Amino acid sequence: MERADIISRLPGLLAALFAAILPFVTSQHLFYGSINAKYFFVVGFVSLAGLFLAYLLLRGHHTVPLRRRVLLWMLAALLAIHYLAAFFGIYPAGSLWSDIPRSTGVFFLTYVGFLAFWASEVLTKRDWSFVWRAVAVSTGVFALLSFFGIEGLGITGRFLVLDFAKEGLTFGNSTFVGAYLLLGFILTLVVLVQSEKGSKMRWFFGALAVIQFCSPLFFGHMLWVGWSSVVDALHNPALLLGAARASGATVFVVVVYLVGSWLIRRFVRADITRRYVTFGWRGVWVVGMLVAIVLLFVPGSFVQERYIGESTAARIIVWKNGLTSIRERPVLGWGPETFRFVHERYFDNRLYLEENFGEVWFDRAHNIVVDTLVSVGVLGALTYIVLVGFFLRVVARVGRRGLVGDTEAELLYILPFAHFLQLQTSFDTVATYALGGLILGYALFLERRMAVVSSGEGEAAASEALPGVWQKVAGATLLVVILIGSIFLLFAEYSRQNALYALSVTKVTRNTDRRVALIDRAFAGPPRFEPLRLASIAFIKSGQAQFTQTPSSEKPVLTRVILTELDAYERHYERYLSRLPEHYRARMVYAYLLLAREAFGGENKLAETKTLIADSYRLSPDNPITYALDALATLYGGDVAGAKEKVNEALALNPDLPFTNMIREHIDKVAEQFPVPGLESL
Fold it and tell me: CB of 429 within 8 A of CB of 437?
């Protein structure tokens, strides 16, 4: 095999390998390893892919046609809107880098966008067939393994990277894996219709599609294990749905649509009649889906009431407050990855009620409409709609030209609608963004093929044409950007996350230098709240437990160790709040840390703490946390009556909240220890 032939086949092989491995990537040595391992896998692969494209451009082996590629320009416009929303949002650094639990900031979305562009440029029709087959096999295997996990038969234990005791196996959540498998299911159907009729491959991919459809993530496992009967399901159709209910419901909707399309092709013979009937069936399906989504937001509608009955009212409350917040920033929103700030500002204390199962803090609305409007505003939402519109336009055009089969075009047509439907109660994560990038890349590839054909050039001639000077400039620029991005988004980011994980497994010792160094390395770079909160709160809790178990003679040494580490966390909270002083929850956690320092015998900063708390009421007026911390600070200052007064003010907000009643009981109990309350007062 010649070198040129190897180079031409390499992208397809690597893309297929990437797609096959993606759902199984996880790590036990990173915080949120199921998400963050996939982040490094995606960014690493895209970086290598970018280096390959840069090489082709610099060597003159590839040219990039830009004419008649409206979908590509819309993708660029969408990314530009995200950057504008980030820079004009409330916390640009947080929007660009995102927080560690999600790893989906604007920089990551740029990598996903480039993945789509790269795939459209270097993959051939044969490569795409190979990639979709890899997706079908990997999602089929994943669906098969899900039968044995806690969503299925409840088998525990480990197998290679899989931990069957974990929800969602390598995704960390059933909802996340359900969103991914739905896309994989539709792509498996694409591969199925691409296979030759009656061939073994068609039977093979048909079996994979059945396995995916019957997965306990989509289909109610209580039925197939005999724990519920069909009669039960008739009385409660929700029993038909698996662990990922939104995705399971969407799969059923997709299958109903496909059965209807098959019946139309089977029994409506006249071409013109079939075209109109098909158009009508599509319209009924889309309108019905949109009506159901609208009713989800209408108070008292049967759709919303059914959703609350199956879940809680917590997300309905959050959606309402999120939509209210858009009035303040309607055009570009608050910035990507900023929903937590909006949620805190428009906080509703009903989230503390037991009926809402303690879902209090949200960094996502768990609804694509609200999340999009809050993050990138009306302008961003309209750009998304236009992008999807051009995606559908490309699908329709390639279907008419015969570049894809009718059934494949039908599947590609329903894919964005299905994904939109399932994201009414969920959100995209690293894996679904990456697979979505490949799907968009396929549409860009089809658009590129049409552009090349329309220009009168053959596909081979277009790929072998020598680039002009601008192609070389683009290649050099791409090379530089990838190298710089790898330094900050791969190596430096991994170093920070590795240090954060090391903090969680390293014991507190008298030699604090190593742990302080780990803290400084973990929170270097753009200040991010969630990892700082997790690490500092965990340390305070473990320090309290260790302090109570340590003999009195050794407590002075332990106290110095704890205070040294708390000082390090304090520095990073001050750094974070200097960048985002209006972040309510960060202020509350910082106030808690200052109280903990004093409880361990550190410098008296009670006055500073009370000032910090007092200035935070305005940021989240309906939140009892402010009153609770104010009461504890007042209590620790020796004012029992003042502490009870603050708790009573919290109860006045909502007397039914278990949280504030618990605080009141706690203060009554701790008050008996005065004049010196113990560490448990915090």
Answer: no
